[in-house]
Write the structure tokens for this entry.
Amino acid sequence: MVIFILNIEKGDFVTRKSHNNDIIFKVISISEDTVYLKGVYDRLYADSDIFDLVKTEEKTDDFFIELDINNDRTSYFYLPGKILHIDGDNEYLEKCLKFYKTNKIYAVGKKINENDIAKQIPLLLKEIKPDILVITGHDAYYAKKGNKNDINNYKNSKNFVKAIKQARNYEKSHERLVIIAGACQSDYEDLIKAGANFASSPKRFNIHALDPAIIASTIALTKTNTQINVPELLEKTKYGSNGMGGIITNGLMYVGYPR
């Protein structure tokens, strides 16, 4: 990574010296000496003193995931699970949709603000009839507010819980509709209790933009009645079981013959 100090402007790619330049951000606005940032790959908003920032030429992600799912395509055909991906952030949504396309999975993407997702989910589920539902965007745990077990101390976890409950009103079975929910530092326990199969974030870690898509894609490409190895699946995500967790779930890909 090439790093150098320059005048900071809106749209620049930067890292924070105080955090060992660990995450690449895009500058979204500047107010005097305070710079407001958005993670390029991690689902994270932050602000920083302008003097803590350095520009970077590095704009490619060092996190690469290739789904290793081998199928016999000489005699059989495959119907992966259908995904509805609802995201509060359009840039992250586009990254995920590109990932689905690369893995030849049919996915419908909708950019919806986190506080509006619950209202729109019933109609979208009836229209699209997905096998897998992803509910994500931005979140944050405000440690200064108090206990991590209080959902009121999170930016959007309440909104995600409401959305999950609406989805479970539509389909109660965790096998007929697999739900992956949450974003950076989300209230993992409450998302799972609300009805998610997988959620973030057990250790209140940040998550990578693709983490929900990796889990959704693996389930979509795993044969029906085949149990997902949860620890193995979580190891495919950037921060492992610190960032994502979930329940044992079966795959949703149907296999047909002859091709």
Q: What stands out?
A: Residues 185 and 205 are 5 Å apart (CA to CA). The two ends are 47 Å apart (CA to CA). Confidence is low (pLDDT under 50) at residues 1-5. The longest strand covers residues 25-31.
